[in-house]
Amino acid sequence: MPEGDTVWNTARVLHRALAGARLTGSDFRVPRLATTDLTGWTVRESASRGKHLLLRLAAPDEAPWTLHSHLRMDGAWRAYAPGERWSGRPAHLIRVVLRSPGAVAVGYHLHELALVPTGEEDALVGHLGPDLLGPDWDAAEATRRLAAHPEQTIGEALLDQRNLAGVGNLYKCEVLFLRGVSPWTPVGAVPDLPGLVALAQRLLAANRGRWTQSTTGSLHRGQTSYVYGRRAQPCRRCGAAVSKEELGERVTYWCAVCQPERSGTPPPG
Predict the structure, then answer these.
(1) What confidence score (pLDDT) does residue 269 get?
(2) pLDDT of residue 263
(3) Could you tell me what percentage of the chain is helix, strand and coil, using 3-state DSSP and rounding each to the nearest 5?
(4) Which of 144, 250, 262, 266 is catalytic?
């Protein structure tokens, strides 16, 4: 599941493979960029912003450009050695290929693929809240943004990237379980919003640099989560069956015993 830590890891893979290299070829398989040729462009760096990937380039005249992509639920980048077989996904899902003397980067099922002047990146990511894994992470600002909508459910608020960037469905479910908060609790009724935000940041940071996402501390199959993906299995705390239901447009996992619903009139925003 591409969440903030997965995108951070992906950015590092692309940076190691391409940073400093001059591209020897490119192949875009999306209509709006089909005629774009990045041959001769230099890759300056690869960075992430929440769930967005920003591959920053320099054109031959040194003008800075950014290749932006979003992984959503099913996108991925893979880096291969020249001549290596591309085994990441079926070929019909390839959206872009970038070639350099030392590596080939292949983007599968990418979304929102766009090439823009680097100075215009804000048009694509400026709406995002503080990045949980970014150098400018601001817990107080993330808490303020969440608290600005006291009647929204905390489950939906955590997924709103305008509040804080990087939390996906897995971390939403796990953070709320660990804090004992029902996903249906209004934001204004969450007892310790700063503590919840701090925990979200710690969990993502703990998984930075590895591909197996774990919130339990275990990397063994079937032991990496408390509630996520464990419908009808016993809660690791109380033994009750883990529940699964839709909240907004996403599936939510939670323990009804460990995460009792809180209600009441939220304080004025």
Answers:
(1) 34
(2) 62
(3) 25, 25, 50
(4) 250
